Structure formats: structure tokens, C-alpha cells
Structure prediction request, 376 residues.
Amino acid sequence: MKKLAAALLAATFLALPVRASGAPAAEAKAAVLMEKETGTILYEQNSHDKLEPASVTKVMTLLLVMEAIDSGSLSREDTVTVSAYAASMGGSQVYLKEGEQMTVHDLLKAVAVASGNDASVALAEHLAGSEEAFVAKMNQRAAELGMGDTCFMNCTGLPAAGHLTSAYDIALMSRELILNHPSIREYTTIWMDSLRDGQFQLSNTNKLIRFYQGATGLKTGSTDAAGFCLSATAERDGMELIAVVLGCSTSDVRSASAQALLNYGFANYTLLDVYPNQAVPPVPVLLGESETVQPVLAQPTRILVDKAAVNQVSVQLELCEDVEAPVEAGQTLGHMVVTAGDQTLADIPLVADQKVDRLSIPGIFLRLARTLLMAG
Prediction:
């Protein structure tokens, strides 16, 4: 490998997977702070303890609904007819009546803003036919996301034996929702709104939406057994964080604990956009129809790093001196290695931007003749 030094152009985001100094202790049974883009855990406290999540469960309900909308199998303007079962839900609700019709859009508002259990079940039944079938989809999706601490028994978070998850798993599903379905913000950032042509008022149960700079969501929950729970998301300077707290003693403690985690994350970490300050040089191709191939970065170059280490960051290119044709598009041609001091922060593959076929026998002779003519 031939190593080419490259300077760091811009410092935007870098977060090391280690805890910075002065990390807060959340007043909660369990807590996690995660950076959205990289999925890096910045703080954790009893992160895999299996606990009741209360209505934070609805993050998964919202995820499945948004996946259906974004895939085209469900429209926000679709009309949902409320069943007797959905209308019977207790706890937080928007007082749906059996036979009442409401759009998916309005039901999403009811879930995201008012934590409506009746609205959650109405959406679940509309999507899967029954809450039981929807819950099976919830658990399947949880398994796909690697949520190994989770077992859902309903789509609402109402108390049920065995309905458990962890702060870590909640961060995982929260990340999936806000990373791949950013339009959920249209609902989770609402402070006050209404349903039924203004006849029913909604007020967000997540007070950070009004009082915390950059708040983007996401979901509160509380029951006597679960305590006060929250998955809070906020974005500043292009970085979005997810703070999960479970089992807080009061609503105010819940908000303060999540806010402390978010403050810690924004104060100590940043995303760096690391890339060479010059074009990556082409790699020679032996016996190829093209004599060179251009390496390109295989993935985005934003990296999370402790702000204290920003000035130590350096970037180095490691490229093959040459490759032999045929070269496939996407074939690895080297790496971009990002370091801070003696720690490697990222090793990003450099891959071929297009395929290069091998020269035919006549092509080899033609190239040789052309070379001889030029030499003469």
C-alpha cells in the first residue's frame, strides 16, 4: 500500500465511543445517550436492564406506521374507522368513539402529541387487522433492529406482564425512526394542536419541545410501575442526539435528566466531516481497457469525536499502487484512515467508482503499437 498524507479540511463532527469527562448521572433507573448518525453511545447507565417503558413503547408503533407510509402502503389521508376495542382503551386517550372515522394524519398527531392509547390501537388494527397481529410485527421489527432486551405485549405501553425493554433498545428504535423517517418531526415537534376541527385540544406531554433549544421529539411515558420515562431527541449544529431515561420519580425529574444528558452531549461532542483536501489520485490498472480507475469513498465521512480531540485529528490515504483488470465497480482500492493521537477513529474503504474490463489480445497489441509510435 502506498500512503498519501491528506490534511483535514473541516471540523464538524467527531465523537469517540468513550465517555468524556464530567458525564452526568441521570436520576433514572436506566439511561442512554446516543448520537443519531453514527449510533455511537455517549453515555449509559444500566442500559440493558429490562424495564417497563410505558408509552415510550409507541416509538415502535410510530416506526411501523411511518414505514408503511414511506413505503406507499399507507397514506396519511387514509380514513381509519375506530373499533369498539380501540375505543375502550384507558389511560391517555383522545376519546375515540366506536365507528368514529379519523385520518391516519390525525391519529398520528394523537399518538405523538397526546400519547393516545386509543389512537395507537386504531392505527395498529388498520395496518395489521388486529392489535395482536401488529404486536407480532413490532417484535419482529425489534429483532431486526437488534433489540435483544425487548418483548412487546401491546402497542400502547399499558401495563402487561412481560412487556419489557431497555434504555439501549429504546435508543435503537428511536434512532431508526428519526434517521430514516425524518418527517415524523412534523408530529413530534408539535407543542399544541387540535383534532375534530378544533373541538379537541392537544398538548404535548414532552415539555422539552417547548423549553429545550433544538428539541425534535420524541415520546414520553408513565405508569405507576414504570415511573416516568422519555426518549428525547434534539438537534444542534447538524448533530442530533437521543437521550433515553427510564424509571424517573417525577415528570420534572424525567425532563431534567434527559436535558442534562443532551446538554452533556452537545457540550462534549461534535461531528467532523473528514475528507482529503485534494482529489484522491487515480490508481493504475494493469491490462485494463482504461489505464486508471478512480477511487471514491464508500461511505459518508462524518465521524463523531470528543471536542477535546478535534485538533488531534488527522487523515491519511492508503491506496493500492496498482490493480490488475478486470476491476469491478465497488472493488476496494484502499482506505482512508482517520486518527486522533494513537487512536483510530475510522477506517473508510476507498472503492472503484466504475468497472474496468480487461484488455483483449488485440487490444493489448493496439496499445503496445500506440506506445511505440508515441515513443518514436
